Give the backbone structure.
Amino acid sequence: LTYTYKIRKDAKWVTAEGEEYAPVTAKDFVTGLKHAVDGKSKGLSIVSSSIKGLEAYIKGETSDFSTVGVKALDDQTLEYTLNQPETFWNDKTTSGVLMPVNEEFLTSKGEGFGAPTDANSILYNGPFVLKSVTPKSSIEMAKNDAYWDKENVKIENVKFTFWDGKDQD
C-alpha cells in the first residue's frame, strides 16, 4: 500500500532571519525520518509499525535505510509504503517525527542542530519563524514572509508565555 504526496514547488526553507535557504523537497522528508531514527526519537512509536521496513531498521536488523518505505521519487514527489492499510495514516503525517529536515543544513549544524534555545539551529518552512526563546519565560515567533501562503497569515507575531503556577516577579 503506497501513499504519494506532491510537495509544493513554492515551499521554501528560511533561516530565523527570514533569508531563503533552499526549496523544500521530498528528500527532506526522507532525511527527517532518518534523522528521527538516528536520534532515537520517542515519537517513532507513532509510525514504526506503519512504514514498511522501519521497525527492522530501528531494531538494527538492517543498516540500509533505502529498505525503509519512504522514498523521494523526485524533488516534488514523496512516497510512503505502509505495511497495511491505515484509515488514519494522513493524520500521522502531521506528527513531528515525519517533519522534513534539510540534509545540508543538518550536516552543517552537527550536534548543534535543533538546540532548544537557538533560533538559528533549525530552518523554517511554515507560517512563522522562531525569534527568541527564554527558558521558563517565553517563546516568540514572527510571520514568515517567505511562506507560500503568507497572504492568509493574519497574525504578525506570536508570544508563548511560560507560567508554572507561581507568582511571577
User: Anything to note?
Assistant: The mean pLDDT is 95. The helical segments are 26-38, 54-58, 89-92, 103-109. Strands lie at 2-6, 12-14, 20-23, 70-74, 77-81, 128-134, 138-143, 157-161.
